[in-house]
Amino acid sequence: MNHKYVSPYVPRLAELVTARQLTSREKFFEVRLQDGSALGHQPGQFVEVSVFGVGEAPISVSSSPTSQGLGFELCVRDAGSVTHALHELPEGSTIGIRGPYGRGFPLDELKGNDLLFVAGGLGLVPMRSMINYAVDNRADFGRLTLLYGSRTPADLLFADETERWRGTPDFHVATTVDLADGAWTGQVGPITKLFGGVAINPVRTSALVVGPPVMFRFVLKSLLMMGVYESRVYLSLERRMKCGVGKCGHCQIDDVYVCQKGPVFPYTRVRKLPEAL
Amino acid sequence: MGLMAIDKRDLSAFIDGLIPQWEVVAPVPVEFKYAFRKVGSFQDVALDYTNTMLPPKKFLLPQRDELFSCNPEGGPSLTPRFDETPRVLFGVHSCDVHGIWLLDDILAEGCSDPHYLCRRSNTLIIGLDCKGPCHDNAFCKDMGTLKPAGGFDLFLTDLGERYAVQVGTGAGTALAERGGFYMADFEVREEFFAAWQKKQSGFPNRIGYDTAALPNILAESYDDIIWEALEMRCFDCGACTTVCPTCYCFDVLDENDIGTDRSIRYRRWDSCQLQDFAAVAGGANFRGKRSDRLRHRLLRKGKYFKEKFGRFACVGCGRCGRSCLLHIDVRDVFNQLKG
Amino acid sequence: MTVRAGVFAFTSCEGCSLITLEVEDRLLEILGRVEFVNFREAIDDKSDDYDIAFIDGAITREHEVGELMKIRERAAILVAMGACAVQGGLYFLKEYHEPGETLAYVYGDKAGQFDTMPVRPVSQYVKVDHSLYGCPIDKREFVEVVTALLSGRRPNIPDYPVCNECRMSENICVFERGLACMGPVTRAGCGAICPSRHVGCFGCRGMVDKPALDQHRAVLTERGLTEEEITARYRMFNGHWGSAHEKP
């Protein structure tokens, strides 16, 4: 039907090209839009993923727009009805994609700076899009540092890739886990424990923080204590973005729709929103 | 736009003349209350009604609103759903016209909502002035909604033997060309002005200060103890948002057809007052406290939209206060915040 | 895809079992997808090979416990169906009498021939995957649970009070009619069926996960109900919930 109205709630069709188990709870997907177009996203943005007949859920894009693949990548935890159904889908299935939505990391403001990535748990998923963007545009950024905290060694995401980043020139990677097993020889404890071991130049560092809500306060404190400028700290906030287009109300923090003004916010903005942290 | 008039004896023929072409919706009595319903004849309309249980938004943003259907065969293929029923909302009071007017702005802003806009563009709104305060908790005068300022095609004010008719849009002008209407002469204008003055003086102020100060008062009350005090009177039932003319938040769900594997994605009214409204799949609930939810609602009503659109997202109809079993009344809260 | 299902009745009137056949226009479609292989009220077969088990009724007798556990072992998905299975239903009222008193009242001098034990919901003994609430269950909700399970999604069952549905339906609040109502603490999903017919909600669907009990008590007290009347209202369908939470 040729209609004068185009609904932003109707997704584009996409193919689940590959599906791979990443950990016991997370699965990795490569997705390609059926019309062959690129997603056209910025690192840090999200899409609304539809499993038809089940529902829709907001998912961060995990690949960088600079990635060579034909599609884009998602990493999804089996946490609800839609994500569970997504885990069950065989490769080649058709899903729906809306977006990309929201504001990602402010690439222009980050250019020329050292970048400190602080990722807790699933926070590495959206962070990966920014990390790979920086690696692929290595000359645009100064020193790169990733601090990554996970629950257990078995929960660590993208282990191969983390190693590859470690081998990238001037890229320092440190990981820690909350609960170690026998084989783990690395750091144990909260992510803030990693801050003591990093040498950063606070006046030229931009800090990007993605993680569970409980992590933010401690990490912010550590960053500010290290001398990182408040105006150069960026946080990605998790909310229930049901519609993605600033209407349904679920993601609202005070008067701000996260799907419109976020999920990546400068700390100076978040500080003025009492409901944010 | 212009002022016209229609004699009372001609109104019936005008409305009945619309019914073959439009679905005409108007207030009808339901026992001792009123509701907007589809009517079959002008005789069904309650002209002297008081505030309906639900506002007329239900005809623009229905409780269940199908967004698209999905047929999995050979595709899948997705078909968007748009409701293009030509509709007239007749008899809408000024407060509710203000409610619709605000929804018009909200749903057109940014990424506009075509499901609403499609319905809205096929809907004509013929307002009707109320004559006096409908309930003792209504505070429309304080919220500046005693007379309409937009969002209507025609708006009728009772002048005794006839109605003065404000024409708000070109579509309203076209409606008025259907017969029975005539240009307002000097006498009609005089009477219309007198009726307005009478209405103004007939409505009391029920908020103890100029509501222009409301956004600031709410900002200063962010950490007020009042929000926690209100917790003791709230059930998380969402009645207040359901009956609100300006609430529009929704949930999005899929429904399956058992026989065919087809599914429908639809949205339905949701409420920021329900416990899980701001919960995410991982388990965190970002507005898990009842007091935070109550504050959020009041700030939306009295601050956020005023700052963004220049108008309050509260029209002062008092429906929320009347539908709350333990009498959480926006008007009372606004008054108490001033201290 | 089709699934094999069993409907099993324990202590109940089996009214909820029958509701599954009362879905009118949807029945043939459901029977096209759901093969009932064990259903006393509808078929003669008694197969032990099924994917979904619908449990109708409360558990009130020793032998029922063993049967229920066997069903749980065989079924991939177990659905507690109706107020008796979910909350113990009206049978739970027995718990407010001295042990043996109800048995003697009903069976007189033959009371000794019957065994009975404290009334418990199905969840007391086995893991329940989904619940269908109400006395009886709502047939639209039965269709929703079946279609959701077939589609691999979580059924959309509300966790907000009946008041919400009453306002949606433009019902006149039964409190305004001078009646008492359990709606403010009772799980919606019935379409406010009783208040829509000018009767206060009895709470048959059980309570929402986090009911506002103190607030509800305040409303009932304000409307002149005595403590005894309030307690009786709560006990009718929510006795088990009350005893599990030491309220009311």
Would you tell me the overall average pLDDT of chain C?
91
**Biggest β-sheet description of chain B:** 8 strands, mixed
Neighbour order of strands in the largest sheet of chain C: 2-1-3-4-5
In angstroms, what is the radius of gyration of chain B? 21 Å
Structure class of chain C: alpha/beta
Strand content of chain B: 15-25%
**What's the helix count of chain C?**
9
Q: What count of domains describes the coordinates of chain C?
A: 2
Share of helical residues of chain C: 25-40%
Spatial separation of the terminal alpha carbons of chain B: 42 Å
- How much of the sequence lies in strands of chain C comes to 5-15%
Major beta sheet summary of chain C:
5 strands, parallel
Strand order of the largest sheet of chain B: 3-2-6-7-8-9-1-10
Please tell me what the overall shape of chain B is. globular
The general outline of chain C is globular
CATH fold group of the largest domain in chain C: Rossmann fold
- Terminal CA distance of chain C reads 46 Å
* Topology pattern of chain B, helix = H, strand = E: EHEEEEEHHEEEHEHHHHEEHHH
Low-confidence segments of chain C, given as residue ranges, are none
Average pLDDT of chain B, rounded to a whole number, is: 95
Task: Explain how this protein is built.
The complex is a heterotrimer of chains A (277), B (339) and C (248). Chain A contains 7 helices and 15 strands. Chain A is 19% helix and 30% strand. Chain A has 2 domains: 12-101, Translation factors (Elongation Factor Tu (Ef-tu), domain 3); 107-236, Rossmann fold. Chain A has helices spanning 81-88, 107-110, 124-136, 159-166, 213-225, 258-261, 267-270, and strands at 12-21, 26-33, 46-51, 55-60, 72-77, 94-101, 114-120, 144-150, 171-177, 187-188, 205-210, 233-236, 252-253, 256-257, 264-266. The mean pLDDT of chain B is 95. Chain B has 339 residues and is α+β, with helices and mostly antiparallel strands. Chain B contains 11 helices and 12 strands. Chain B has an 8-stranded mixed sheet with strand order 3-2-6-7-8-9-1-10, with helices on both faces. A 4-stranded antiparallel sheet of chain B has the order 5-4-12-11, with no helix packed on it. The two termini of chain B are 42 Å apart. Helix content of chain B is 32%, strand content 21%. In chain B, 49% of the residues are buried. Chain C has helices at 15-19, 27-33, 62-74, 83-87, 101-107, 139-151, 162-168, 213-222, 227-245; strands at residues 3-9, 34-39, 52-56, 77-81, 130-132. Chain C has 2 domains: 3-151, NADH:ubiquinone oxidoreductase-like, 20kDa subunit (Rossmann fold, 3-Layer(aba) Sandwich), CATH 3.40.50; 162-245, no CATH class. Chain C is globular. The model of chain C has no long low-confidence stretch (mean pLDDT 91). Chains in contact: A-B, A-C, B-C. At the A-B interface, strand 4 and strand 13 of A face strand 4, strand 5, helix 3, strand 11 and strand 12 of B.
